Amino acid sequence: MNGCMSNSFRSLITNPRFAFFLAGLWMVFLYVMSSLPQVGQYNTIYGLDKVEHIIAFGVLGVLLTRGFQPMFPKKGLAVVFLVTVIIAVYGALDEFHQMFVPGRTASLTDLLADVVGGFSASFVLYYLSIRSSHCGK
Fold first, then answer.
1. Which domain holds residue 49?
2. d(Cα 63, Cα 125) in Å, to the nearest integer?
3. Which of 106, 6, 113, 109 minimizes the C-alpha distance to 56?
4. Is 93 part of any domain?
């Protein structure tokens, strides 16, 4: 191999269905993690849990955006909005679910961190796609 990706691997990782598949797996992972009872105080650094939410839902934002971008190539901001709404709904459902998990609570600040992470990741991908399309002109 000469250091280049094979065409079949490249087509797999750029396939929107694969992005949605990974997004689904990531959502299952997030659900399982939020289903684990929290015992004691695990975060020793104030605000670290919000950073974790931003990163976790940022990953989800990237995966969803990669799935939706090819479907709406001329509507980048609509994709950012759609991804943000999906993440807000999923984050709200996750916070609601945590009300029933021992040692966990629902938190609006966690939900806000979820939305910030998902929106930021999606917007960065949108911005990068605009920049790359202008570079070719």
1. 21-135
2. 10
3. 113
4. yes
